[in-house]
Each structure stands twice: as structure tokens, then as C-alpha cells.
Amino acid sequence: MIDDNKRPPLAVFDLDNTLADTAHRQRFLENKPRDWDGFFGAAAQDPPLAEGVALALESAEECEVVYLTGRPERCRRDTLAWLAAQGLPEGRVFMRRNDDRRPARRTKLEILKRLARDRDIRVLVDDDELVCDDAERAGFRVVRARWTAPSAALEAAQEGEGRT
């Protein structure tokens, strides 16, 4: 007998360079000062990453899919439209506050721990090695999204500037 009150486990997916290919907008991060408005404004044109999309769709068969991104809250409308346009599973989207400049590994781990208080987290899928390292140390199962080329500019933004 199936317990109708039991909620499915969560599969948590990052967006940038996990589901969305940001290569076309890396140019906005290569100069100082970095053009954050340009970088996030171009996100609506990100091509989907087939490996990540397939994993999200597969995960949705047994899990509730949620999205955990370092994108600022001001990007919510474009992000929701992009997810829908790619045919990705509906799910809650956790974004950083517009003024939050902490490293992604801190903000994402906080949210993961909060979600884990009352839900089983089956997997975190993320491209940020530091996020993955910290999540594994905290006991979460991690799939490292290594299907795009690493970007030094994006890594600096994630860790040093707390922007994505």
C-alpha cells in the first residue's frame, strides 16, 4: 500500500552550466568592472544543456525537482520562463537575495540544509566544485555537472564576488 502522505524525495538542480549553457554570456564577466546586468540579462537566451535536462527529466520520475541557483531574485521572471520553455519539470526555484554577496557554496548549503530538515534530498546536481565539495562534506549525494568547460571568470564571480 502506498502512503499518500509521504512526499517524494527532492532532486536539487543548479541552473548555470548545469541546465543552462552560459558560454555565450561569459564575455560580460571578462572585463573589470564586470557587466552583471548584461550577464544576467542574456540568461534568457541560454541554450539548454542536454545532459542536465535529461537528468532533471529522469529525476522527476521519482523525485520532486527543485532549482537552487546563485542568480539574484531580480532574474526570477526570466528564469521561470526559461525553465518552462525548455520543458523542464515544474518546481520551486530558490534564488539569492539581490543584495546577497556571500559565496555560492555558503548560500546553497544553507538552503540545502533547510530543505533537508523535513525532506529527503536524493541528489544535488551542480557544476561548482566548491559547492559540491561542501555539500558532500555535509552528507549530501552530489552529481558534479562536468558537461561544460570551466570558466575562470564565472568561478571568480561565484566564490569571490558572490554574484552567481
- E-strand count: 5
Tally of contiguous helical segments: 6
State the end-to-end distance: 44 Å
Largest sheet: 5 strands, parallel
Low-confidence sequence ranges: none
Percentage of residues in helical conformation: 25-40%
The portion of residues forming beta strands comes to 15-25%
How large, in whole angstroms, is the Cα Rg? 15 Å
> Shape, please?
globular
Which strand order do you get reading across the main beta sheet?
Answer: 3-2-1-4-5
SSE pattern = EHHEHEHEHEH
Name the average pLDDT.
Answer: 90
Structural class: alpha/beta
Annotate the secondary structure layout:
Elements: E1 10-13, H1 36-41, H2 50-59, E2 64-72, H3 76-85, E3 93-96, H4 104-116, E4 121-126, H5 129-137, E5 142-144, H6 152-161
Parallel strand pairs: 1-2, 1-4, 2-3, 4-5
Helix pairs in contact: 4-5
